[in-house]
Amino acid sequence: MRIVAELKDYFHTLQFLRRPRRWKPTALAAGLFVLAVGLFFVPSKQPKTDAPALPNGPTVGTEAATTILLDQRSYSVAELTSNTPLLVRIAGIEPKDDGVFAYHLVYTGLEIGVFNLTDFLVTTTGQRLREPIATVTIGSVIPPGARHAAVYTDPPYQGRAVPYKFLLILGTLVWAGCGGALFWPVKKQPAVTPDPEPEPQQDEPDAEESSAPKTLAELLRPLVEKAANKSISLEEKGRLEQILFEHWGKELELDHLDSLEQLRRILAHPDAGALLRTIERWLYQPNSLITPEEINAALQSYSALPSDPRQSTRPSRPKPTNQTAPTHFES
Amino acid sequence: MRKYALLAWCLAPLAVILFHFTTGQRLWFAEKSVPLRLLGEKAELAGNYKKAVEHYLSAESAAHPKDLVLRTRLRIDAARALMLDGSPLEAAEQIDLLLEPRRGRPLPTTLVAEARSTLALALYYAAYTLRLESSSPDMWKSEADGAYQIFRDLYQSEIRTEQKTLSVFYARNLEASVRLARARKGELASLPVPEAARAALERGVASKKRAAASE
After folding, report:
1. Tens digit of pLDDT for each residue in A246-296?
2. With a cut of 70, which residues of chain B have pLDDT below it?
3. B91 falls within a domain
4. Is there a contact between B194 and A7 if contact means CB atoms under 8 Å apart?
């Protein structure tokens, strides 16, 4: 069940399957396949006979059985002649409580008509029994106006071969279609809840261009707001410092200095260190309530600066990594 | 998730190849054989029995050597067409060969019943023709009795099944066999001769039987 659910999720993420009002290639191929198989199993023509339905009673040539009660055990079947219309056989004799005997008779009619079974039984002296009367009716299954007695079925098959080659080709196409679907480039669906810290996609800058912050103030704002709320994490602090180092390192031409010296000079600079000092103050006042106006004021000097360092006319210095960048707030 | 789909996608050709070189082979050959069989059926329905026999035998040659069911069915078809073409005794011999006990997997019961039914019909038409050609019971009695016995067995087997679809067919042919055996020669001659018996008369079945008996 988990695999099915995962498969379902996966196919839902396929871009081309989500396009509305368009034939889906795999669904179309699967539909054709099911249709072809279904058509093959449509029942073919049934064998034809022009005989009527089977009568209820026995017909000429068919065997039937009955039981009659006789007073003696010694009766037997009369000798057969070439023109006897009924073949009778005693299958068994069973004595009953009231002194009579049950004769289990099996008979086969060779002619159509009504016959008395006891006519075909004889006493020990060879006389026909005749009584009691136990009639049987032999019917016919051949229609009265039939031209010929015997019938044969029409060629009974009249079917189709399994379209094996067609199914092989179709299966190959479906398989290729599934392969195409599997190797189709899948785009991730945007998350339902907006990312609180939208990091710029450095590998795919064009994809996120429209939603990327345009100014440095926009880039810094979520981090500064978190610092104001005292909810900023160590990674986010490192990220904030990294942005400021990148910007002020180029502005103040500090690229040739080591990280600690850069930090010291930025903090000492009246403009460059202003934001870092403000944030430090906010963090060391745990009960303070920072208003939006204070945040706006702290970001005021960055509102006109572009967020992308490549837009700057001056060459950028190498980006410091999290491992090498000093964390001012931990110092 | 994607890995399961990829795994299934990679394994699918293996399954198809495995199927193709086992059961698929019969389907592959049957696709060549069945159109020939359909041609045979068309020829048979059009009354061109000689052509029908040729098509059925070609279809049998095109079938997979191990496809016993299809090959047997085609042999039955060919025997039926041969019977209708006026050679009921040869057709009966062909079916007798099919019904001989064999090693390996037995044939499906429906196919055996179909073969026996065709055999009984061939014997019936042979007996019909021999009765018309010769008044001696020695010439036709064994064929008539054979047809009666087989149709009776088939009928009794059929009425024990749930569907009973062929019980009327067997009952009618059983009755026809009884009537044939009991009819007087003059009575039989006054009736319209069935097409298969007429074709057999033209081919001189009685003389063929005499020749076979003398050999």
Report:
1. 888 888 888 778 877 877 888 888 888 888 888 888 777 777 778 888 888
2. 135, 215
3. no
4. no
Token pair belonging to B140: 């036709």
Q: Do B4 and A53 count as a contact with CB atoms less than 8 A apart?
A: no
Which residue has tokens 């690229």?
A: A255
Predicted ipTM of the assembly? 0.74
B196 CB neighbour count, 10 Å cutoff? 27
Q: Which of B167, B129, B159 is CA-nearest to residue A54? A: B167
pLDDT at residue B79 in the model: 93
- Counting the structural domains of chain B, the total is 2
Q: What angle do CA A16, A18, A23 make, to 5 degrees?
A: 65
Question: Does one domain contain both B128 and B195?
Answer: yes
- Whether B73 has its CB under 8 Å from any CB of chain A: the answer is yes
- What does the pLDDT look like over A44-83, one tens digit per residue? 444 444 445 667 788 888 888 888 888 888 888 888 887 8
Q: Is the peptide bond before B88 cis (omega within 30 degrees of 0)?
A: no
A150 with B176: Cβ contact below 8 A: yes
Question: Are both B125 and B213 inside the same structural domain?
Answer: yes
Residues B53 and B159 both lie in one domain: no
By C-alpha distance, the chain A residue nearest B23 is: A164
Both tokens of A46, joined, read 């049934």
* CA–CA min distance B17, chain A (Å): 10
**Contacts B118 to A, Cβ<8 Å:** 152
**What domain range includes position B73?**
13-85
- What's the average model confidence in pLDDT over A165-190? 84
Residues of B numbered 160-179 whose beta carbons fall under 8 angstroms of chain A's beta carbons: which are they? 164, 166-169, 171-179
Please indicate, yes or no, whether residues B44 and B79 belong to a single structural domain of this protein.
Answer: yes
Amino acid present at A167: L
pLDDT of residue A29: 66
In this complex, the residue of B73, B167, B175 whose CB is nearest that of residue A142 is: B175
Q: Answer whether residue B3 is part of any domain.
A: no
Of B16, B44, B194, the CB nearest to A150: B194
Q: Which residue of B has its CA nearest to A149?
A: B176
Residue B5, chain A, CB below 8 Å: the answer is yes
| pLDDT at position A195 | 52
Lowest-confidence segment of A28-37, A221-230, B40-49 by average pLDDT:
A28-37
B78 and B126 share one domain: no
DSSP string, B131-183: HHH---HHHHHHHHHHHHHHHHHHHHHHHTSSS-TTHHHHHHHHHHHHHHHHS
**B1 domain-assigned:** no
pLDDT band at A9 (very low <50, low <70, confident <90, very high): low
Within a domain: B96: no
